């Protein structure tokens, strides 16, 4: 299983960061993770203008966890 991980930090306070793991309808391939990562990041930034994307990655074999 491949998961996309996007890391966003606040523009005014770069020490405040969050990780987002978007869910997709179909399992991601390596190529789809790379291509869909750009789209997912752009979509998040459209609705969160106070944040900036600082890094992103595709993780392999990570078991998704339910939010706490």
What labels would you give this structure?
elongated, alpha+beta, 68 residues, 1 helix, three-stranded antiparallel β-sheet
Mean pLDDT: 89
Name the strands of the widest sheet in spatial order.
2-1-3
Number of strands: 3
Radius of gyration: 12 Å
Elements, N to C (H/E): EEHE
Plain-language structure description:
The chain has 68 residues and is α+β, with helices and mostly antiparallel strands. It has one domain (2-60). It has one helix and three strands. The chain has one helix at residues 30-47, and strands at 2-10, 17-20, 51-60. Strands 2-1-3 form a three-stranded antiparallel beta sheet. A hairpin with a 6-residue loop joins strand 1 (2-10) and strand 2 (17-20). The radius of gyration is 12 Å and the shape is elongated. The two termini are 21 Å apart. 6% of the residues are buried. The model has no long low-confidence stretch (mean pLDDT 89).
How is the topology of this model organized?
Layout lengths: L1 E9 L6 E4 L9 H18 L3 E10 L8
Antiparallel strand pairs: 1-2, 1-3
Provide a quick synopsis of the model.
By secondary structure, this protein is α+β, with helices and mostly antiparallel strands.
């Amino acid at each position: 299983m491949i998961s996309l991980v996007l890391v966003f930090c606040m523009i005014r306070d770069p020490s405040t960061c969050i990780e987002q793991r978007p869910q997709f309808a179909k399992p991601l391939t390596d190529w789809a993770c790379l291509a869909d990562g750009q789209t997912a990041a752009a979509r998040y930034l459209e609705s969160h203008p106070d944040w900036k994307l600082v890094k992103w990655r595709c993780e392999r074999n990570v078991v998704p966890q339910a939010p706490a």
